[in-house]
């Protein structure tokens, strides 16, 4: 489920993904196009043994979409982009299309520009490289619903205040080796049991090898609770890089699973009567000290459990806005089948030290490494979320908390569901939204998120979410899980 992870700064030495994305946020003029073309030409020789490059972005429903180009076409794609309709912002998870004020319909075109600093050969897909894209208009400005650029903008806004963030997604998935669309667990060992490692040891070995060859820094891999379920933790990095990595890791898992005649699902709920796949987010706030270097605001202070005043304010801003944040972090009807009390999904709006039933868990790390490891874990999110949009919204909420000098309520040291109604009322405990409709209503009311994300994204998210609500109106939990289990 949820293990400690390091939030050190060393990965910036390897690749400043946030910096690359911030450059991509700038309008494209002739000089920038020439620079991109020259950079792509330099890269082409290193990719000569490959056939094509998969260019991906994640839509509002959390599905990674793609266009591909031959390696020989990279120079043109870098300078001038690859055409793609903006209609994908309005796709539902079943590939039907809704229409809002800013998205939907057959008219228009965007240009997909690969992040050249993030191109990587995919060991799990021989002959292919992968790169995330930023979507531009034909006039060379960033598309206002491009969530990767929106996340880069939030990183910049935080930097303007003297802060940076480190992030990582936990990746949970289940494996099926059955026929058709039914789910048949690919292993039968007990939860967290060594038996599950033994059953699929060759698969897991190939997965770790593929991730290492693709440049992914894996912290740990272990069997999980549900039948056929595993979890993989990766190193923390800058927020844009963390979102990129989550996409790359999932596509690597998917490819290795196919190679072993299995199918992977990242859906929040695969079986109606089983626990689901979470997409927990680990997040920490940092500042640069002239004498000490990078300093983690989630420890070393005088606040509760060592939080600094700024670290507490950042966490409090997120906690206060969790009902609204669920519209991007738990974005499907199936998500609310997962958000069940006493299932370690964090369904109550509270926080606590190492409390896996709190919506926000403070992770301190072991004594002696807290300056490196301390972070908060947002437990109510799942992997149907667009990782770029999820992190952008979390950073915006944390930034609002900093501006408000917000403070956290009393921490929760127990399972909130084990308390009586009176005890929860006395503690001011509230359930997070129990339906997607309630989360969308909270999202549309939140002024801080609206200011940060912009009207185009707010309207499009609400439109797509209501489209999915209508899609599953009256459906039974079994029908919802059957329709969604292979979409993410």
Automatic annotation (TrEMBL):
Classification via SMART domains: Gln-synt_C
Biased composition (Basic and acidic residues): 1-17
Domain GS catalytic: 147-488
Annotated stretches, region: Disordered: 1-28
Every GS beta-grasp domain range: 48-140
Pfam families listed in its UniProt record: Gln-synt_C
UniProtKB keywords: ATP-binding, Ligase, Nucleotide-binding
Family statement drawn from the similarity comment of this UniProt entry: Belongs to the glutamine synthetase family.
Name listed for the protein in its UniProt record: Glutamine synthetase
Record organism: Actinomadura gamaensis
Lineage summary: Bacteria, Bacillati, Actinomycetota, Actinomycetes, Streptosporangiales
